[in-house]
Amino acid sequence: MSLPFTGAKLSKAQFQRISQMVGQLAGINLHVGKQELVKARLNKRLRELGMSSFDQYLTYLENDRTGNELVTMLDALSTNLTHFFREPSHFDYLRQEVLPRVLQKGGPRRIRIWSAGCSSGEEPYSIAVTLAESIPNFGAWDVRILATDLSTRVLNTATEGLYPESRLSGIQKALLHRHFNPVAKPKGEEKTWQVKPEMRQLITFARLNLMGQWPMKGPFDVIFCRNVMIYFEKPTQTELVRRFRSLLSPGGTLFIGHSESLTGTDHELHYVQPTVYERR
Fold first, then answer.
1. What is the average pLDDT value for the chain, to the nearest integer?
2. Which of these CATH numbers, 1.10.10.10, 3.40.50.150, 3.40.50.2000, 3.40.50.1110, describes 88-278?
3. Active site residue 149
4. Does the annotation count 64 as an active-site position?
């Protein structure tokens, strides 16, 4: 009688090989303290593939010419904690400071915003709701929000725009009814809401590795890159911020996460307040 598979052991050498792959591909720094997390998350993948050791899995990874398993591995290792209107001071600043400047500009009624590391969509949808609620004659504006993430798994959720009611606790009821539709569910299941089509059509969701080529040209009025750079080492952060600056329009705003800082990075952005920077 065979014993059930309880999980493969992950040696230090195996962890280092995985860490090196993830670092080279996505710039993510998996330090030694992450070994148990990597073991737990990737053991689920081993079970799905019918494998009993990390040596088997590493051989499979290295021989996968399609690159699909690398994407799946990154999906498994990515942390995607988010919620609607997370770090609300950023949305206050967007509404009170950024949008009035954009609205006062001459020329085309055009706004471009990039949510880099959009996870399951709560951030770009929160941006869309803020714009719709703050811009007079909103329908007359050309508004586009680019939302990118490394994880195909969370992008599928984001594209659908479907969320259980428990995930919408940060949204005022009036906003919920204006910008979401209730979705019929079998009795006993949690009520679900879907972002209305007019909000979803403002957003383009796409998979993007921030360490790779960026196909978009910009310029963007605003870039949100929050709680993403904490996984990168300082040289990678510096290069990333340099690239963000190149895509910001003059006067454009970069928001980073409250757990992050640009201290120690060489950048040419103007510090406005903690986590808010502008291109001058």
1. 89
2. 3.40.50.150
3. yes
4. no
